[in-house]
Amino acid sequence: MVAVPARQGEREWAGWTALLIAGATLVRLLFVTATDIANGEAYYYVWSRFPALSYYDHPPLVAWMTWLTTRGSHGSLAVRAGPLVCSVLFGALVYLLGRRLFSPRAGFLAVAFVTIIPVFFASSYALNPEAPLAPLWVAGLLLLNGMREHDEPWRPLAAGAVAGLAFLAKYSGVLLLGVGLLYVLVSPRGRRWLRRPSLYLGSLVALVVATPVLVWNHQRGWPSLVLHFVERTGPEDLGSLALNAWHALVGQLGPLNPLIFPALLAVLVVCIRRSARDDRYRFLALASWPVLLFFWVMMARVRDAESHWTMVGYLPLVVAAGGLLDERAGRLPAALRWYIGACLALTLAGTAVFYAYARNPSLRRFVPAGVYDPDRDFFNEMSGWPEVRAAVSQEAAALDPDAVVASCQYALCAHLLTALDDQPEVYCPGRRRTQFDFLGRRDPPAAAPVLYVQDDHYHEPPGALLPDRRCTPLRTLAVERRGVVMQRYHLWVCPPEGKE
Question: Is 229 domain-assigned?
């Protein structure tokens, strides 16, 4: 007699969760229709045009996913369809994890939290490796949680397969294996798996799934390892490391919401304190703080750390927050209710302003003088690509039928290739190695005239990158929206040596 209301309650919370996910998806679709892809998204899209076992900067899953979604169209919706689908799957899996660890209401609350955290929202519609990584990470946690409570030998094999897929999404996916091993070693409930061969076979399954990345890197001298552990590292002195670590920590405030970030750290403290007597919180703590520690150390060591790297480390804390609030349902202190309301209001207000600015960039006039930095405004790189395509195509055709296009920075090169549909072909003779090197698109053909494109952000002139050519300015194209100059594109003519 008691089970019927329980099932009804579960269906009710599942229904509310489905409505929440559907509503969030509609909001993401609004942003997709309001903006074109950014330079970084274009870079990942270019990978999908050259299918391979892996790529220089990241593993191949984001490119494979985009290859599938762009079979019928190359528009921004098709490019971003993969992240949109992944976001729906991610929300459903977060609900399942919260429900299995705590209750259906806790699952709903966990989904509500990830919905209002900005970094999860942005990665759920923009093309990026975190889009497929997020649902795979939660799926991995679900399988590891199943190993807490069940003994079927297939569970480590499935967990290994998901960890391998997470590695194909992003190299940090390998940390899922570390989370599983750490839990098995630390938890009294988990140590039973150390005596079972299926645990070790699961690691072998992960290795097999990750084989494409290993083969691609082995054939090329492990360039991805060199990139992430050598080329990207910065100064090693203690002062610089401490400063980078501080910037990495403070840099979490924006992506995680300035009010939610300290709350998640407080949840981590609670998880650690409860670990001794509650294996659920031990599991969530071990799935969080070691991952966050790893990322903070890496962010302190590299020159170009990005604040979204840590997002998977907060996922267990979001689920734990749902469980903690579920315990106190109906008994929340007034101060806590106000705090949660403030978190929601801040995210809603920020989202509304973000969307309004995406539609009307003239709103930047309200930003105080000296605060606005056009180089940090990625909306500037999203606008005007039909005009750029028309201008570049016209000038290249007038230059020579064999003319090619080149630029100075890999993301700008990628956006040019995307806008032109690689007609004419695009090359990228930048100062650093990029995926264009592995596509055979670094150095333009010696006999082909080059139409060189730079903008106000990536403004290195062609002289140093094309030293064998004498380049001359051709024209400047100013892209405007609502009376605001979003970006200026500068075109140069670089004929072959001896044909100036």
Answer: yes
